[in-house]
Structures are given as C-alpha cells and as structure tokens.
Write a structure and sequence with these properties.
With 485 residues, this protein is an alpha/beta fold. The chain has 21 helices and 17 strands. It folds into two domains: 229 residues, 2-enoyl-CoA Hydratase, Chain A, domain 1; 232 residues, 2-enoyl-CoA Hydratase, Chain A, domain 1 (Alpha-Beta Complex), CATH 3.90.226.
Length: 485
C-alpha cells in the first residue's frame, strides 16, 4: 500500500462511519415506532416518491459535529437533497420524525435555508415532506446563526418555482408555517397541522384539546380551507404531488389517447345539462365528459362546495378549471368558494396555466349570514384575480349568469378571453327576473316579459358579448380547439 493510501485510510473510514450513523436515522427502535404508526421513515418516503436511484443527499453530516461536543444528531432530523421525479429535477426537504421528533436544530435550520435557496437559484420545484415538532427546545440556549431563515426564503420563492407541502404526520410550529408558503398542501388523512400542539395550547390557554381537533386533515380541507387535498395513504399523497407538478411545470401537451382522437359530438351532455335553469345538475358529470380520461385532479373538493376547482387536460392541453356547481346552493358564489377560486386563479397566472371557466350561477350569495361572512370583499378579490390573469382564458356560459356572479367568473365582454362561448339557452341579467320583479314591485306580466328577455343567448350574440354560441354536444371539441390556439 502506498504512503498516500495509508494516509487516506483513517479519513475515509471516518467518512464512512459518520455517513452510516447519519443514514441510520433515529435507530431501530424509533424506526419501529414510526412503522407502528403506519408511517414510512424519511428515507423510505424519498425512495417511494422519486425516480429510482436519483436522490443525491445534501447535508448528510449536518448535526454530526457539535461545537460543544454534544452527541451527534443523525442528519439533524432533516433529510434533503436533489432528485428526479418523473424525470424532472426537484429539491427535497424531508423531516425525520425518528430523530428528536423531526425538530429543528441549528444545523437543520441551515440545511433548510440552503435547500430553499438552491431551489430558487436553480429554478427547481421544491417538495416539503413534513412530520416534525417545530423548533427544538435546546435552541433557546444557543445563538441563532443563520440568516436569512428558510421562512424568509420561502416567501421569496413563492410564485417563482412550484412548492408542494406533504403533511405526513404531526406538523407543528415552524414546519407548519413553512407549509403556508406552498402552492399545494396535501395532507395524509391521519396527519395534523397546527401552529401550536396540545401541550402548548394547554399551557398558554388552559384548554384541553387534541391534535385532531386543532388541525386534522378533515379540519383543514373542509373548514379552514388551509389544505387542498386529503389522501388516504402516503403513496396517494406522492401521486397527487406528481400530478400537480405535471400541470404547473409542463408546457407541452401530454401524449394521451384523448388528444389524438378525432373530433366527435358528445350526446351525453344533452342528458346531463337541463335547459331549465331552475333544475340542478352535477357539474362533475360535465367535467367527466369534456376532460381527458384520468386527467382530472380536483382540489379542495370539500371546501367552498358551490364551486369546483380542478387541474385537467383537454385534448392533451393542461388547464385549470373553475366551474360553478349547480347541485350546491345553485352554484352561488360564497365566501369559501370565492377564496379558493381566487387562490387557484392566481396560481394559474403565476405558472402560466390556461384557465377554463364554466359559468352557471345565480350570483353572489345573498342574505344576512353571507353578508356577515364578508362575501362581498372576497368576491371582489376573485374579480381582481381573474381580471389580473394573463394567459389563455376560455369562458363558457352554460345556463345562468347573474350580477357580479358572472363578472367574477370572467364572463364580462372583452375581459381578455381567448374565446367566450355560450350554450343557446343561457339566462342572463343583473339579477334573476323573479327577484328583480319582487325588488321593484313589477307586475306578473312585466316579470314574465323580463324573464323572456333574459332567456336565450341571442341578445349576447348580437352584441358580441359571446364570440360563439355552441351546441352542448360540441363543448369538448370547442374547448380543445380554444386551448390549442
């Protein structure tokens, strides 16, 4: 053996030992506990999510050389690096619950800042896999040396590269705050997300509570609107993340059977959509007929249920769909519905996703409860979002569109639509005819006359409020052609 090789031997041995110790995470016992909870470890999650053999770890030895001689902390509770996901280069930041509950020490914080900065500088999507307890208690005894911190950098990165947060366990404090900067938040059904956990709530407020009561996936996808998707299993969470990134990252059409097929009329739509505006129908059935098979990814289905937001492909072309849901309160614009529409329209603007609006609503929700909810302000925000949207916007008025409810959906003439379409039986106006008659004291004869004037697309076509009046059976083909340009 040469002299140089002899000199290298102890260094390489130390490198191997330190790397193996860090890769062992919290050890066999804690790994077994993680599995007993029905959860994967941080490294198992990475292996299940990314392309095989593509992960390159950054910061493996962080936490392994404490300046005051404290015991090493495996990767300081955070596994991170770069990988490929469906061939796309991404940055990963994965909390390791088996190491001190996934809490954040100073090396962990430095690694977070490095990884977020890396995503920003290299324009890679960033995935946050959260399962941790927030700031480590021991941080209070040490100076915080890293600035800017990852939350500052996450605020900088928003809208510049896609960020996806997957909440796979209990995520509290700093980690939970990091999720708020993500474009999409996906929660496992048994996970929880909160600023402070039950012990802190008890200490600060004297309230006994549970993690589920504070921030379960059901709370955040149905009540608070904080999270966008709830999945039953970790593989389903990973698949949802993959599908989302395919919509916000890919600018080229997908190679799908649906995009290659010849144009054809869809007779089923005549059975789904009733011309009578007083009769409800399920907009999801319409979407099932017009989007490519298997391409629909609905987000926040249980929040703001009068409106549907979904990613999809039509003829291979990616798009964001915002559609009123007539089966729920006639599709009226409520505060939660406007909030989620506003969020996703702004997301479509940031990532240059074409926008498809399917309009069928009686206006902004009226009544004392709606007014107290602040629906007017949020509807105004929704109007501003769609007005500021720059991209290929396709608006289809299916049946009814009254008052500001039509405006927030982008139906106003010359509102930067690529094309404005309507079915022949649409009913339009400042307010529904019967409501207008009651408000003004009009006679039954006058009310009937007003209702007749509101019915039909002919006046809108005459004034160029609509570019094309179409047969319902041609809806998919019209959307396909509009998205192709």
């Amino acid at each position: 053996m040469s002299k140089h090789r002899q000199d290298w031997a102890p260094l390489l041995s130390a490198l191997q030992e330190r790397g193996a110790s860090a890769a062992a995470m919290g050890g066999d016992e804690r790994i077994a506990r993680q599995h007993a909870r029905g959860r994967l470890t941080a490294r198992e999650r990475i292996a299940a999510l990314v392309d095989e053999g593509s992960f390159r770890e950054y910061g493996l030895l962080a936490g392994g050389h404490h300046p005051q001689g404290q015991p090493a902390v495996a990767a300081d509770g955070l596994v991170g690096g770069v990988a490929r996901l469906d061939g796309r280069s991404v940055v990963l930041l994965v909390e390791d619950f088996t190491v001190q509950g996934g809490s954040i020490g100073h090396p962990n914080a430095a690694k977070r800042a490095r990884l977020v900065r890396l995503a920003l500088e290299t324009k890679r999507p960033l995935l946050l896999l959260l399962d941790g307890a927030g700031e480590r208690a021991s941080n209070q005894a040490e100076r915080y040396p890293h600035a800017p911190g990852d939350l500052q950098l996450l605020a900088d990165i928003q809208g510049r590269v896609p960020v996806v947060a997957l909440v796979l366990g209990m995520s509290a404090g700093h980690g939970a705050l990091a999720a708020m900067f993500a474009d999409l938040i996906i929660m496992h059904r048994d996970s929880a997300l909160f600023s402070a956990g039950p012990p802190l709530v008890k200490a600060a407020m004297g309230i006994e509570t549970t993690a589920a009561e504070l921030g379960s996936a059901q709370v955040h996808t149905r009540e608070s609107g904080v999270a966008h998707l709830c999945c039953d299993t970790e593989p389903e969470c990973f698949e949802s993340a993959r599908r989302f990134l395919a919509y916000v990252c890919d600018n080229t059409p997908a190679d799908t059977d649906a995009s290659a097929g010849p144009a054809h009329r869809n007779e089923t739509l005549l059975d789904i959509i009733p011309p009578d505006v007083s009769r409800p129908y399920d907009m999801r059935k319409v979407l099932g007929e017009v989007v490519d098979n298997g391409s629909l990814l609905e987000v926040q289905a249980d929040y703001g249920r009068t409106l549907i937001t979904a990613f999809a492909r039509i003829g291979g072309q990616r798009c964001l769909i915002v559609a009123n849901q007539p089966t729920v309160e006639a599709g009226a614009i409520t505060r939660p519905a406007a909030e989620k529409a506003c969020y996703f329209i702004e997301l479509a603007h940031r990532f240059q996703l074409p926008l498809v609006a399917l309009v069928d609503n009686p206006g902004v929700m009226p009544g004392p409860a709606a007014e107290r909810s602040g629906v007017l302000r949020v509807a105004g925000n929704m109007f501003r979002a769609q007005r500021h949207y720059r991209g290929r916007k396709v608006v289809v008025t299916l049946r009814k569109a009254f008052g500001f409810g039509s405006s927030v959906m982008g139906m106003n003439p010359w509102d930067r639509q690529t094309v404005s379409l309507a079915l022949p039986g649409v009913s339009l106006g400042g307010v529904p005819a019967l409501g207008a008659a009651a408000a003004t004291g009009a006679s039954a004869t006058d009310a009937a006359a007003l209702q007749e004037r509101q019915t039909g697309a002919w006046a809108g076509a005459d004034s160029m409020a609509f570019d094309r009046i179409i047969d319902p059976r041609d809806l998919r083909e019209e959307l396909r052609q509009a998205l192709l340009g």
